[in-house]
Amino acid sequence: MLSPTGNPEADGLLSSDPLALLIGMILDQQVPFERAFSAPSDLRDRLGGQLDPAAIAAMPPDELAEVFAARPALHRFPRSMAGRVQQVCAVIASTYGGDTAAIWTSAADGKELLANLRSLPGFGDQKARIFVALLGKQFGVRPPGWEAVAGPYGEPGTFRSVADIDSPEALQKVRQFKRQAKAEARAKASPPG
Predict the structure, then answer these.
(1) What is the pLDDT along the chain (193 residues), one digit of tens a residue?
(2) Which H or E run contains 9?
(3) Residues contacting residue 39 through CB under 8 Å, at least 6 positions apart
(4) Does the pTM of the predicted model rise above 0.90?
(5) Which CATH number fits domain 8-189: 3.20.20.80, 1.20.1250.20, 1.10.340.30, 3.40.50.1970?
(6) In 3D, which of 143, 75, 159 has the Cα closest to residue 103?
């Protein structure tokens, strides 16, 4: 089971609510995994116990931003992330009839799944590929070609991203991989001296 938060209730929501999972992925930038993926549970509670894409899309933007900014804030950048979540919810409501899972269940193959994800606001190539890997590794969503489009994130036995976090130990391995990758990138970027 996916367990990036260390909180059984928040992890359970990620496993049972496709919108919560997608929101966690949206928020997974410039904050720790635990915060990004526990925020959907907090958002659900702040919205009265339900995550509904049409209702979130219809909220006044300032009101949703206030929900995100209430302490403790749901993200380091609550206003911009509230806007991003609202934009994605609007796409889900208008394009997928409010069914978040249709983003992946409607995909005939990995390429279409990747295209569906990349069409969402805030989902660049890397985030979309990580989410394809997350769906394949943790949720059994494996349309033909999913591993190819997930790239290295889809490789079995790796610890590159949230797609690989199924235990506290795996979380630590992913953190170590990310630290090492950042150190290598810094070493390449700095001139010898």
Answers:
(1) 788 998 999 999 999 999 999 999 999 999 998 999 999 999 999 999 999 999 999 999 999 999 999 999 999 999 999 999 999 999 999 999 999 999 999 999 999 999 999 999 999 999 999 999 999 999 999 999 999 999 999 999 999 999 999 988 999 999 999 899 889 888 888 766 5
(2) helix 8-16
(3) 23, 24, 27, 74, 75
(4) yes
(5) 1.10.340.30
(6) 143
Are 51 and 106 within 8 A, CB to CB? no
In one letter, which amino acid is 49?
Answer: G
Rounded Cα gap, residues 25 and 109, in angstroms: 21
